């Protein structure tokens, strides 16, 4: 820390992104990216847009908001776009949390929530998951906090039903409930249809996972137009050009190619079931993940050992060195070939370690 760094940020522990190695060619199963390239239409439209990079992008992003609104059955004024859904979450912490509106979220969830809360100097509460890693909806009924719930949750992949989300929304009418649907397209139920009934609901989504565009940094929020206006106040106060021309064009391209996204999601879902079955045969235990990753442990091998042994053999997964998930690894579901390489390597590791 330099002597110039503001004391007000001294306590900040930044989010640790998954490794992006450059020294060696890994099978990369550590950051829940899509194994498939972006839609060819998205690529074509992004490269067309590159020809006009001398111009700032449209800060209203109207065309893309219209396309997203049509896709989700909402109005363009009920949509905000951002530089990844991370940025929508950041705006939400800034907009809807303060001393009078503390934040609350599960103790095991997306690591950025506590970072944003700290950055925004918002008091927050981490609510323990049940022992089986499920969220107990009763813990979120009428809490008086601004709630952040990833559904499916990360890194467990476990979901709450729409009925459970609705109970939570109904019991907290004066607090915003943020439902982070980064992984919803791999088998979760989206809460977007509830935004017209609950003015306290903000759903966040991303083009990073099911739409194969993590590198474009494009995310969105869907909520009542009042909530969206609040988020836009923060957007216009920080970076009105938060979505660049190429990413916005790629977003339009992939939304015009839903069949491509759907096919890729189906493949990931099939590969997830295939991998889960094969890993169970090797003795691994895992949650019932509805996301594009599996959360697995072996009863006789420490999580760190599995992580290190896989890395040594060229496969990168995500290990969180903290209780109570220390024995687990989060493994992104990739292509069938990548999953076969993973299964073969894990079977060697199990043979060696047990
Ligand atoms: N929410 C969750 C639960 C995530 O795992 C991620 C991806 N790391 C994000 C949000 C943010 O995704 P992005 O900013 O790429 O849209």
Question: What features would you describe in this structure?
Answer:
Helix content is 36%, strand content 14%. By secondary structure, it is α/β, with parallel strands linked by helices. A seven-stranded mixed sheet has the order 2-8-7-6-5-3-4, sandwiched between helices. The protein has a three-stranded antiparallel sheet with strand order 9-10-12. It has a two-stranded parallel sheet with strand order 1-11. Strand 3, helix 4 (112-119) and strand 4 form a beta-alpha-beta unit. Helix 2 runs parallel beside helix 7, helix 3 crosses helix 4 (112-119) and helix 3 packs across helix 6 (225-238). It is globular, with a radius of gyration of 20 Å. The mean pLDDT is 97. 4'-deoxy-4'-aminopyridoxal-5'-phosphate is lined by residues 84-86, 110, 150, 154, 180, 182, 206, 208, 214, 219.
Draw up the topology in text.
Elements (H helix, E strand, L loop, with lengths): L26 E2 L11 H11 L11 H11 L6 E4 L2 H12 L6 E4 L5 H8 L4 E4 L18 E5 L11 H10 L5 E4 L20 E6 L12 E5 L1 H14 L6 H11 L2 H24 L3 E2 L6 E5 L5 H10 L2 E2 L11 E5 L3 H18 L1
Parallel strand pairs: 1-11, 3-4, 3-5, 5-6, 6-7
Antiparallel strand pairs: 2-8, 7-8, 9-10, 10-12
The chain binds 4'-deoxy-4'-aminopyridoxal-5'-phosphate.
Sheet having the most strands = 7 strands, mixed
What is the beta-strand fraction?
A: 5-15%
Mean pLDDT, all residues: 97
Computed over alpha carbons, the radius of gyration is 20 Å
Number of helices: 10
Return residue spans where pLDDT drops below 50 for at least 5 consecutive residues. Answer: none
Bound molecules: 4'-deoxy-4'-aminopyridoxal-5'-phosphate
- End-to-end separation in angstroms reads 45 Å
Q: What general outline do the C-alpha atoms trace?
A: globular
Largest sheet strand order:
2-8-7-6-5-3-4
Strand/helix succession: EHHEHEHEEHEEEHHHEEHEEH
The secondary-structure class comes to: alpha/beta
Number of strands: 12
In which range does the helix fraction lie?
Answer: 25-40%
